[in-house]
Design brief:
Blueprint (H helix, E strand, L loop, with lengths): L10 H19 L1 H15 L16 H21 L11 H23 L4 H16 L17 H19 L3 H22 L2 H21 L12 H27 L7 H10 L6 H9 L1 H28 L9
Helix pairs in contact: 5-9, 6-7, 7-8, 8-12, 10-11, 11-12
Length: about 325
Amino acid sequence: MPDRVVAPPRLAMTVPEVMLAFVSVVGFVALGWVTDIVRSATVLVAPKAEVYSLLRWPGLTDAFITSMIVVVSGLVVGVVLARRTVVTGPVARGAAFVDGLIDGVGRGARRIAGRVQHGSLPLYLATTVVMVALASTAFVVEIDTDVLYWWDNRAEAVLVVMIVAAAIAATTVGSRLGAALVLGAVGFSVAGLFVALGAPDLVLTQLLVETVIVVGFVLGLGRLATKFPKATRLWLAGRVAVSVLIGAAIAVALAGAAASPSGDPPVLDLAESAVADGGGNNVVNVILTDIRALDTLGEVVVLLTVAVGILTLTRTRAKRSGQPSETPR
């Protein structure tokens, strides 16, 4: 490749450097005038800056020494680079550079997708769980054991033990139908926990959701094999580890959030609004039907959508098996 002479920089490229040097010299000479301008602007932001003033010689401070080191280092680097002969390739054109950049992004995306998007749903879930668990580690330092307590009554402890036992059973049961029933046991135990905590609205919603889900599982699993594929001990241990990890992450996040409440609880405001704005003494009913009516409507729409989906699946299955498609009324 023949040598190519690099043209010196144009005069316009030196204008910023010259202007900066000129302003620095003017500021050094007319220091009092510059101090008045800077002080008047700084006082608007910080009133205590009235005593602020610029100095021509601040002394051998750390900032001055650091600045001189930077300046001297820049001079040395500039002199060394100026004596080197740099062989450059052809000048990259704008369009070619952009095209190459886009092609590189595409190649990188294909490589990442080939390694990450491998089509394994369990690995996707495991990756998501690990990321959530890592995010929850920030709440560990926020946990305050002084504001936490185990339970209000022993019924809550019994229900929690049932939930944990059912969750562990869900990772070990070999039947699809058994797994669906065990998951239903978890949901119904959570509904019992809501009863012990005094939340009737959550109890009704939880019971309805769990009933629909369990029925949907039972109807949908009729088209699948009765048993799960045989899994190795390593795979089973991985499923248990992922379950324990996400459970611990959620527990840590909730404990950290409970230990750092923000603001006053809205209970008193909701009770007052239920009577004054909602016109009812049953705070729970007024909240569901008035204060958060759109939220309740959204829950109803979700439940109806699930019910319609289950009904459609059962009718489709009945048609494929040659059975009557009418559902009992």
